[in-house]
Amino acid sequence: MLQGSPLEIGRRHGAAVRSQVHANVAALLGDFLTGANAALRGEIRAWQQRLRTFCFDHWPWLQPEIRGLAEGAGIDAELAELLSFRAWQYEAYHAGACSSFAVPGAKGEILTGGTLDDPRFLYTIAQVQPDHGLRFLSFPIAGTVWANRGMNEAGLALGISSLLCPGVKFDLHRLVPVDLVFRDLLQFCSTVAEVEARCRQYDFFCNLIAVDRTGAVFSCSSYCGDRSVHAAPQGAAALTNHPIGAADAALRLRGFRGPEQGSYSVERLAQIVAWQASHAGRATVADAVTFLGAPPRFGEVNNPNTAFATIAVPQADPHTLWIAQQPVTAEAFNAFDVRTGLACGSM
């Protein structure tokens, strides 16, 4: 649990996962520290300065939080900034995976869920209680001020799926770290209408599905300077890691060569769509647990790279997020209150 002022939240975070932060600095920023990418060092520092100006102008509370995180973890403030700004993915900013979906469930209530697919050892689970904004639960890389997949006390549930676009060029000088946009959404948005409005303010790469406690669903692909909003008939939406519909057409004009085969994005999307079709109008948390908790296999929604899986039904349980962490199995899901971070049940 991270509670208090931005400075105190940062200090608590850094102190709580100090050794993990140091390991992440070595794993993610090692090339920067050792000079292995010396040719880019000055360029990355200039890019960092541009980002710190942008981010601290838009989210001034991030500056003391990052400073507190550096103090709590015992690392240099510059390294803390480089972690939160994703310096290790400079020039490859939209890498990653994940699956997200929404489906009309039992009693007409929208069920939403999905997975975060990335090395589990990098991440922590954070329940944040800021002195300004909404309490929320999410999964940052330890040592960052991020949010991603998660839910807040207003009953807003977010699913993030990285948008992988081989061949697409993007403007590093316009790009905003998507994980900081998600932090902003979880801490300050209560409805999908607010999410949509806020997403229009920032240039980032991401597939996003948001569901609020009224049952409204927002499904969108954002691609640094433009976006495509996808229809969600009866509240059904699904996104993995490739662009679909209008986003596919728009990105092909920018050089998109087609989905990355190694991410199994097309296969995972097809599995979700098939599951939605067989459960539309009757899906329950237990059904989603069975689906997401299937034995992990490469090419499937739950796979050996799945670090976390989440499920929420904001209309019925606006404060409850079901979470399983690697190894994700049906038995691994537990319910947590996003207002406190405390467990409130299991399947």
The chain-level mean pLDDT equals: 93
- Beta-strand fraction estimate: 15-25%
Structural class: alpha+beta
Largest sheet: 8 strands, mixed
Question: Looking across the biggest beta sheet, what order are the strands in?
Answer: 1-4-5-6-7-8-9-10
Write down the Rg: 19 Å
Strands, count: 15
| End-to-end separation | 23 Å
Q: Residue share in helices?
A: 25-40%
Q: What oligomeric assembly is this protein in?
A: single chain
Can you write the helix and strand succession as a string? EHHHHHEEEEEEHHEEEEHHHEEEE
Question: Which outline best applies?
Answer: globular
Low-confidence stretches: none
Tally of helical runs: 10
